[in-house]
Amino acid sequence: MLLEDGSIFSGNAFGFSTQEIGEVVFNTTMTGYQEVLTDPSYSGQIVVLTYPLVGNYGINDQHSESSRVQVSGFVVREQCETPSNGTSTETLHEFLVSQQIPGIYGVDTRAITKRLRSQGVMMGVLTHGPIDAAKRALGSAT
Fold it and tell me: What residue stretches are annotated with the Carbamoyl-phosphate synthase small subunit N-terminal domain (predicted)?
């Protein structure tokens, strides 16, 4: 992920393989990642979750705030690949793929949050591709 101040946060791709530009915001909730993903108030934003493990109870049919994912991208410290919940119908990764939303894990989400808190709102690019292409895309979007 590239922020408009030039900061680069490298990690591992998950979800749909694409590049998305959006306003980068953070959320400090400990639960409710499915609700965050589908909340219309996050439309077009790249959301960074500060809680370290996300995806541990999977995705189910009861916890969506709308009929589709609203975020442009999703950033987590660690994503659980094997959720443990009887109502789970798919993993977080599968859900993001089906909704064509890119994600990244293995990044220091607390560092991103501290940067956003100290410097304010900024645009960013979430990409699974070369950083040079992301820099060009972000430059033309801002």
Answer: 1-127
pLDDT tens for 3-44 read 999 999 999 999 999 999 999 999 999 999 999 999 999 999
Whole-number Å distance between alpha carbons of 58 and 33? 9
Q: How many CB atoms lie within 10 A of CB 2?
A: 22
Alpha carbon distance 130, 24 (integer Å): 19
Domains and CATH numbers, the chain: 2-141 (3.50.30.20)
Maximum Cα interatomic distance, the chain, rounded to a whole number of Å = 45
Using an 8 Å Cβ cutoff, are 40 and 66 in contact?
yes
What's the pTM?
A: 0.95
The tokens describing 12, both together, are 């591992």
